[in-house]
Amino acid sequence: MIKEAFSTSINYMQVMDEQGNIDQQLLPKDVDDSKILEMYKWMSFARQLDAKALSLQRQGRAVTYAPLVGEEATQIGSAMAMGQNDFFVPNFRQHGVFLVRRLPLYAIFLYWKGFEEGSVVGKDVNALPYIVPVSTQLPHATGIALAQKYRKTGGAVVTYVGDGGTSEGNFYEAINFAGIMKAPLVMIIENNGWAISEPRSEQTAAQTLAQKAVAAGIPSIQVDGNDVISVYKATKDAISKAADGPIVIECITYRMSMHTTADDPSKYRPQADVEAWKPKDPLLRVRNYLAKKGLWDDAKESTLSEEHLKEIDAAVDEAEKFKADPKSMFQNLYSFIPDTLKEEMDAAAAANFWQ
Ligand SMILES: Cc1ncc(C[n+]2csc(CCOP(=O)(O)OP(=O)(O)O)c2C)c(N)n1
Ligand SMILES: [Mg+2]
């Protein structure tokens, strides 16, 4: 005898299409035009912050940087869905989420200048700092979610992983454990089509990344990650149900720029692929929507842009004034300093690099 043991399907959601048309049946009750305007403003801020960070690195004023351009809707939509009580666990690309959660901007610049002090996240931000080793943040996210459950603090943990990161053991372990423990975890897959030079098509034979949740016994959905309203809705729904257990949200977006400033995508990616994604730009559709409603125009755009630049420039100035204690890079790593490192630490202090 053979009978079906299990079956499932994965839904895909889009609320606002590429032309700025809204599926009214899917529009969340708390999303009105003023909220859509707010979403646009944050996305535009994130894009400007991104351009500045990239240009600083190109001028030798930052060590490295992982651009977010193209991925604004995934980051801003999910960040705006989080409440103060929710905890954010990033990888290395979610500058837009930090922006909305009000990590001081200068800390972002400080981090990418290579200073540990940029990793100091204030309690009010309710987040871990940037995490570069791929997917190592995920079991921590599950652990923090469990702690929230035991302490009955309410709120969920919202964590991020790239398409490439979903191939790591840590990803499966994190969702499996979260599933069995019913941890309030929202796992956002920021599927930007690439893991450095590895395209999504060579990452896994699975048709969607969302379906990886099925093996962990937890629900999942795929959304248009370039539609800020879809991402907002999916994240908000997930957070509201997080007390019942974890959820995986796969956001389909596209990395419009290089992986990091150490990468040259022209070596492995046809420019035509990038061009094909340009009409799907997450800002463009929202700008079209707002312009059609008479809520946005070029004058408003340039005023907003000047405001953002002022804030960004002030943060860069502050980061550039920062003088690190050369000892801090040693002291942040060990609870006691091994003798061999002590010698190096004293030499670094004597050389006084940054004074
Ligand atoms: C454990 C580990 N292996 C390899 C790397 C080098 N590395 C950094 S980012 C990256 C690709 C990540 O791709 P993806 O998860 O899709 O995230 P994206 O960079 O596209 O946002 C790799 C291999 C690393 N940082 N950590
Ligand atoms: Mg990727």
The secondary structure category is: alpha/beta
Cα-atom Rg, whole angstroms? Answer: 21 Å
Number of domains: 2
The total count of strands amounts to 8
Q: Measure the end-to-end span.
A: 78 Å
**Total of DSSP H or I helical runs spanning 4+ residues:** 12
Please estimate the helix content.
40-55%
Largest sheet: 6 strands, parallel
CATH architecture assignment name of the largest domain: 3-Layer(aba) Sandwich
> What is the CATH T-level topology of the largest domain?
Rossmann fold
SS strand fraction: 5-15%
Biggest sheet, spatial arrangement of strands = 1-7-8-4-3-2
Specify the overall morphology. Answer: globular
Mean pLDDT: 96
**CATH homology group of the largest domain:** Thiamin diphosphate (ThDP)-binding fold, Pyr/PP domains
The hetero molecules present are: thiamine diphosphate, magnesium ion
**Which regions have little confidence, pLDDT < 50, spanning 5+ residues?**
none
Overview of this structure, please?
The chain has two domains: 12-322, Rossmann fold; 324-355, no CATH class. The strands form two sheets. The chain has a six-stranded parallel sheet, sandwiched between helices. It has 355 residues and is of the alpha/beta class. It has helices spanning 33-58, 72-81, 95-100, 105-112, 137-151, 169-181, 228-240, 271-277, 282-292, 298-321, 328-331, 339-351; strands at 12-13, 87-89, 157-162, 185-191, 194-195, 198-199, 220-224, 247-252. The longest helix has 26 residues, at 33-58.
